[in-house]
Amino acid sequence: MTEPNLVFLPWARRGGPLDLPPDVRDGHPASQASATAEVKVNGAGPATVQVRLLGPGDVTGLPAQQVIRTDPAPGSRTFEANYLPLVELDEPALPWLFTPASASAGRLRPWLCLVVVREQPGVQLAPPARGSLPVLRIGIPARPEEELPDLDDSWAWAHAQLATEVAMTDAALADALAADPGRSLSRLVSGRLLAEQTEYLACVVPTFEAGRLAGLGDDPGAAEGPAWRRAPGMPPVELPVLHHWRFATGPAGDFQSLAMAIRGRPVADGFGTRAVDLSTSGLGIAGAEDAQVRLAGALLALDAPVQRWSDPAMAGRFAAALTDVLNAPDQVPASNPLLAPPRYGSTYAAPAALDPASPGRWYEQLNTDPANRVAAALGTLVVQQQQETLVAAAWDQAADLHAAARVFGLAALGLAVADSLHRRHVAPLPPESGLFVLAPLRARLLRASATGSTSFAQQWAEARLPDQALSPVVRRVTRPRGPAVRRVGPAAPVTGRGVLGRMTPTEMIGRDLTPAAGPLTFEAGGGALNLSWAQVSRDAVEGAPPRPGFEIGPSPTPAPGPDPLPPFGGGVVGGGVVGGGVLHGGLVRGAGPSLARRRPTDPFDPTDPFDPTDPTEPDPVDPTEPDPHPHPPRRDNQLAATFRTAAARHLSAFLAPAPPDRGPLGTLAVEAMFAEALELTTPARTFSARVSGLLEAPAPPGAAGPVPPVRFAPRFDAPMSRSLVELGQHWLLPGLDGVPANTALGLRTNGEFVEAFLAGLNHELGRELLWREFPTPMTATFFDRFWDAAVAPDAPPDITPLDSWGGRALGAPTVAEDRFVLLLRSELIRRFPDALVSAVRPGPPAEQLLPVFRGAMEPDITFFGFAVPLADADDWSIVIAEQPGAPRFGFEVGEAPVGVSHAPVTEATSASQAARLRQLPARITIPVTVLLRRPTP
């Protein structure tokens, strides 16, 4: 049946209506036709003119871009013999464009057709002779009446196609043909019945004699009739070829017939395993004369037995004996080494000695189970057979290794020099001097804490220092041997001058606030200072500088002061004792050391410090000279001391204490800040970050130093199941030879075998690379893929890195649990590799899973892995479907007419003929429960 979105049309034409003679069944249209055209000019007329229409005798070629598809494709070797060849043309009206006739009873002969001839003696595609087209010659011993179709039925093998969503009337179809060229095409089908495994030549040729002559380069003149008339004993035929291609048919059967032949068959007990005789193991185990263990492959039956030993007691005896043999080299001195069988995976386990007390660990299971040792030995055998190829590939991956070694060597040298400079010249500096030295790096210090305490960024923010505090101007003015610092003198050594501390808001308030003439109270001055009562504490009162001129008086309105400082919280109010006290002008000074020092010849004026930018200032006094006028220390007067005590007790009773682990805001803990900056600039840290930026992958944990040694671990992404199959298909699935043709089997992956095989593979390659002096860590995982996951590029690897296995059991699910596998032994997938195979489970909600890996084995075996939980496998079904595509035409296998070379016409129109011969994509569904049935005896 025709699909609802495809409409087949028996013929199609564009342009205005023409009064052409009908194409009658008993006759043949003329090769030329004329028509009368009427013309009106400015409303006058009409005027009539006789015109000759272009006919088949005017065609000398076919544009190559008109051919948009052929079935089969050129060069195909496996075309189904029960299908019909075809060619599709872009223009939907092209087959009837030059036919000088009109349709009759829904039939219209095309001016060209598709012929398919068997490659044989007497059939020749000759190069152009008189014309521009190649020439198809059919003569003795070939028989043209068998190779060519009957042109009286040519109307039945050409049709147009239109893709539409809804049913349309004839007028709507005509409008759709003209509106969207991408939804329409025309098709020529050959009715030639094909034979199996035969070579054929397909050619598009003219159907009119006039077209044949024109294509050959001759003058068609008044030639009439068809290009050939099929009859017994036909003479040789020469036909111009507008388009051609060659193909061959394959064995009998199409997708549907091959798919329908597949049967789901259960497996017998023991399928997928093979017995290994252990009687001659050489371990001297008593009672092992008839001992056997079942060796499984990478694939197992869904209901494979858990017990693999003929005598379960033998498992422990063999494990103990193998442990003694494999650990024997550890019992002899290094000067007299002992050669013993390999301990697979020893570089990934620490220590390398087998532990009898850990029988459930992967390392012991891998080495003390004979079946697992066989799987690991297969991995070593792969490396031994492919060692040259693998080592060459490893060196190819490490093409930049020498350049990297040079860069890392220079990095190690730079680290040593930088560490020495940092340790000798930066770390010993006083905290404040060190901060000035590291000031250019302040932007890089604003990151997480390196010492485990408060970060540098948080300390800087809490200090409320201006951004210019560590600027080059401040560093230049406060340099140890600069003029300003030299004026300080010996009373304030340069190592503790407290420049940054004096820039904090608490110090600046006490130093820069100019009070009014009258007494200044907190209520009067707090608003101007942007302060609040919440910022007053007992520590603020007790830590305020001494006030020898303190007195208590009325609270007049203060004069406007300077611009307020930025707000700060929880800080010490360093401008004096706050809370009802009076701060007299001229006595407000900070308690810290001053950067300016009075000149000996000047009168004492603490409000006029030394200005290094004033050219009228005299040169500073050498700080080594003694001060002839020392100042007495400042102390609270009696009233200030009394007020300080009372205010502190008062504030303690009403204010909550500050957190013990946080300093007040607006103060600077210069030692802690320098310690944090020093740790952040340690070369071991900075070089490690820089070297890590050169690496595509981070350095492994526990790397020796910030510059790790240059070691490269090559990776091989090829699925190693192919290498195992090259050793023998029976290693992948023992008993495979006993699977009959056209069989579907339900299996599962064997994670224990896969991990043992990959462990042996990685173990042996690491040893080989060590022997070849390849700089690689022995704990690297070189192979982590066993199954071919090309169908699922985002699928994770089959194993995690071996050095992360720890104490897990061999085969324990890490990346994924064992997967359900469908095995097909059939020609279907080999002949139709694009077939769609999926696993479905009815809903609600319905689920569909595509394979996560696939593989193939000779001669006709294909398997697909699905992420289907094994416990729920019986709820699923396997669907094998033909790839949907463009329409195809033919017969069911065994239903084609016999005794004829071309299929007879059975329908009234070409559209009906196409609909009857249309072959829809086939699909079959196999419930997994069918694959789980027990075999009948």
Give the helix proportion (percent range).
25-40%
How many DSSP E strands?
Answer: 27
Helix and strand composition category? alpha+beta
Shape: extended
Task: Give the termini distance in whole angstroms.
Answer: 44 Å
What's the alpha carbon Rg, rounded to whole Å?
48 Å
**Low-pLDDT segments, ≥5 res:** 491-497, 526-530, 558-624
Q: Taking all residues together, what is the mean pLDDT?
A: 82
Largest sheet, strands/sense/barrel: 6 strands, mixed
Commentary on this structure:
The protein has 937 residues and is α+β, with helices and mostly antiparallel strands. Strands 14, 17, 18, 19, 22 and 23 form a 6-stranded mixed β-sheet that branches. A hairpin with a 3-residue loop joins strand 22 and strand 23. Helix 5 crosses helix 6, helix 6 crosses helix 7 and helix 9 packs antiparallel against helix 20. The longest helix is centred in the middle third of the chain and has 26 residues.
List the helices and strands and how they pair.
Elements: E1 6-9, E2 33-41, E3 44-53, E4 67-71, E5 86-89, E6 112-118, E7 123-126, E8 135-138, H1 144-147, E9 158-163, H2 170-179, E10 184-189, E11 199-206, H3 209-216, E12 237-240, E13 243-248, H4 255-261, E14 263-264, E15 273-277, E16 292-296, E17 299-301, H5 313-327, H6 362-368, H7 370-385, H8 387-397, H9 401-426, H10 431-437, H11 442-445, H12 456-463, H13 472-477, H14 483-486, H15 505-512, H16 522-525, H17 538-542, H18 638-654, H19 670-680, H20 683-692, H21 721-727, H22 729-732, E18 743-749, H23 751-771, E19 820-825, H24 827-831, E20 836-841, E21 847-849, E22 853-857, E23 861-866, E24 877-881, E25 888-889, H25 910-917, E26 918-919, E27 923-927, H26 928-931
Parallel strand pairs: 14-18
Antiparallel strand pairs: 1-9, 2-3, 4-5, 5-10, 6-11, 7-8, 8-12, 9-10, 11-13, 15-16, 17-18, 18-19, 19-23, 20-21, 20-24, 22-23, 24-27, 25-26
Helix pairs in contact: 5-6, 6-7, 7-23, 9-20, 10-19
